[in-house]
Amino acid sequence: MFEDLLSGFANVFTPIHIIMLFAGVFIGILGGAIPGISGTMLVVILLPVAYGLDPIPALLLLTAVYTTSVFSGSISAILFNTPGTPEAVATVFDGYEMTKKGKAGEALGVAIFSSAIGGLIGCLFLILLTPVLASFALNFSSPEYFALIFLALVIVSVLGGGSFVKGMIGVLIGLLIATVGLDSSSGVARFTFDVTGLRSGIDFVAVIIGLFALAEVLRKVQEDYFTKDKTASPKTKFPGLGLLNRLKRTIGQSSLLGFFIGVLPGVGATTASLVSYSMSSSFAKNSKEFGTGIPEGVAAPESANNSAAMGAIVPLLALGIPGSATTAVILGAFIMNGIQPGPLLIEQQGMLVYTIIGGLLLANLSVIIFSKPFIRIFSYVLKAPYYIIGPMIVIFCFIGTYAVRNSMIDLVVMVIAGIVGYNLTKAKFPLAPMILGLVLGTMIEDHFRRALIISGGDFSIFFTRPISAVLLALAFLSLLIPVFKWYRRRIMEKKDKALPGQ
Amino acid sequence: MRNIGISIIIILLSVFLFYDTFSIEVAESEEIGPVMWPRILLISLFVFGFTLLVQSLYRLKKESAEKSGDRFDAVKFWGFLILIILYIPALTYIGFIIATPIWIFILAFIAGMRKVLPLILTPLIGTAVVTFLFPVLLRISMPRGVGIMREVSYFFY
Question: Chain A contact for B61, CB < 8 A?
Fold first, then answer.
């Protein structure tokens, strides 16, 4: 493994690879800092670029954007009290308080350092865990795969933000969209309504671009995302040895916590940063100072969200099952390039996997090296008004969709997905479950049908094989989480009602 | 209200698509055919759609009390949406190279750009950048339009 990793790392330094990696780092840091552009959207609008490149540079570009945008959302969170990406929500609590105290430079330094260390720790666990998980998954047959994807989809509905019912509806819609077109086993057309363009299925890239990017533009163009007259560009101050010593426990714990939260499907870096902030503020010695502008309050969410971003890549590479919405889009990029991630990927395309991992290591290191000089540029970029960004994103959406299959039907699908996505987000539907359902739809159906063919139509095959039974039991157990949440809410409501009468 | 509308659409959609599964040709020998999976999904979708409808009706009173604080700018929303829809036929007939600067210009205007110089420069620079990046550098073929528009596009990519 070590040799593979070294050769993968060396491969990163091929000119085209390193150019794409640094382009990704630059776009990720710059784009992620702009409020209103999430890391997912950045990856989505770069899909057409990835389509025009070879697989390795394309995936290096997208993963570098993904990694660095998680960090850069903290810049506007600290300087302007506006998280650049959702992952930086928790960074606002103490980051902006530090800015108000005149410690913006220190807060940025802590954010950069914690993000890079969190990302590197996450990367190390990624290197260690991916091959183990992949070799374990080699024992998997169709029933186990079905159970695993079922578990992933249930968890993303339960924990993906929003209500469980809405999450499940999202998953089911995603799975249904994946059934449109000619059935891969029997060749029979399903839900095509005699439209020739639908026989080859609905392109998931079109749906993803519509749901995420176009819907977001329709929403954001109505808001004022113009950072007016905010010219703050403080000098970044990296933490000294004393401060590092003080933060090492917070960074270490949050990175570990973040990584394992990130591995769970659908529970991405945003949840990791919030959970980690709340854990640190509950258990730290100076817990009462959290929220008043202390470095620990920046270090905890920043190390957790970057580590979680790495965690989300583990199931993607080892099992072919993405851990978050952004990694689902990256899975789409893999498939677009004719690569199917899964347990055999490391064995068959070890160079590709380890080059990507090497790229991730380097991207995390780049955060330390490049962020400092970039922060001065941010003060200009952050002033870019949405009336420039919005129209350009629209054009990127069209190019991205059209590039994949040169199909006008795909453009229609993308626009419909945009309108649907806009309405669903307005109704507080989480989009990640739908994306995961869509991306994993063909896979789960294939394994479901294969498993039933093996058993001769007997559904007990899913419950009699140990791994599959355990995974399904976990899925059904996780269904209890909304019940617990509902029960807790009822008790709280009863308490609230009881209080005034006392 | 939006939730009620969405849940009704979901229920109707699941019923309609379930009905449509009967038109899918299935060979009699196929026990696990192409219909079983979509039907399982549609039945589940109906159940969850119905649950959402019940939940939404139950919460209707609460929702009407807590009025949504979201801003809705009709001009920007409908302006963007209509232009986005019209961009599809524009790409087909006018072609990418001519339609794009026009659309960026109108979109930017609707979004709030009012200064003349940026209104002229943004569409030109924007189109130049995306044309250079995608059709020229990455060789991604974009629609050329018809007639004279098609001929014009050959000057650029």
Answer: no
Angle among Cα A131, A59, A23 to the nearest 5 degrees reads 130
Distance from CA of B111 to the nearest CA of A (A): 5
| CB-count exposure of residue A480 (10 Å: 0-12, 13-18, 19+) | exposed
Closest CA to B22 of A190, A183, A178: A190
Q: Where are the alpha helices (DSSP H) in A238-337?
A: 241-263, 269-283, 295-311, 313-319, 325-336
The alpha carbon of residue B69 is apart from the nearest alpha carbon of chain A, in Å, by 11
Residue partners of B106: CB distance under 8 A and separation at least 6: B79, B83
What's the ipTM?
0.91
Report DSSP state, residue A197.
G
Q: What sign does the CA torsion over A460, A466, A471, A474 have?
A: positive
Q: Does B70 touch chain A (CB under 8 A)?
A: yes
d(CA A418, CA A272): 28
Across the interface, whether the CB atoms of B77 and A415 are under 8 A apart is answered no
Portion 420-439 of A in contact with B at CB < 8 A: 423-424, 426-427, 429
- Name the DSSP letter for residue A385: -
Residues A174-212: tens digit of each pLDDT: 999 999 999 888 888 899 988 888 888 898 888 988 988
Domain parsing of chain B, residue ranges: 2-65, 74-153
What are B96-134's pLDDT values in tens digits?
999 999 999 999 999 988 889 989 999 999 999 999 988
B21-52, pLDDT tens digit by residue?
998 877 665 667 889 999 999 999 999 999 99
Query: In chain A, which residues have their Cβ closer than 8 Å to the Cβ of B73?
Result: 221-222
